[in-house]
Amino acid sequence: MENPLLLFPQLNISASKDKAYFKVMKSAIKEEPHKASKPGAKQKRNRLSLLLQKPEFHDGDHPGKPGNLTKAASVSPEEAVKWGESFDKLLCEKAGLDAFTKFLKTEFSEENIEFWIACEDYKKSKSAHELLPKAKSIFETFIQKDAPKEVNLDFHTKEVTSQSMGQPVHSTFDAAQSTVYRLMEQDSYPRFLRSAPYLSLLQGRGPTRAPLRRRSRSFTVKDFQGTRPDLTMW
Asked: Do you know which InterPro entries this protein is assigned to (predicted)?
């Protein structure tokens, strides 16, 4: 009986390919543990593991997320109550100013308080020589058209401020600062007083924090309490 491989040469080619394939796979399986044990790969895995464990990797300052308004240990409920008495009292306290600034960042409107702070610093300038560079910096950052942190000012206030830039004085930004102050007092400040972190400070519990790992959220039974199933889909 003749050898079937001679009658059908394609079988011989296929068999050779299979042998070569299994030989390569066997070699790869033997080498894999060796590769994994190399110091470079191990160090990379260790560095990645440490990175993932760092709080800032999962709990960065992302606008819009709930977070600390200020350290709970540094603010008493009595102090937090004073913040609610008037907008002036909130801004006069460093902890209150910091808390309000962080709140505005969650609303993407921190340029308002940053402008107000810059104006306060500007008015404390001791000499006329200091006014010009400071005024130019404030104007270019917050007021001129398409400024990187442009605040919301009416046309008249912008014009008055712009005209005084040639010879700035201590009162150059008073009108603009008052406009932004009223905007924050009437709009952002009431929302701050209703915010969950501020209410937590009033109760002495400190600001609420979300879990470190927030990349994905798992639903719990509480999420479904008080809800009614939608039977129209069945």
From this structure: RGS, RGS_sf, RGS_subdom1/3, RGS_subdomain_2
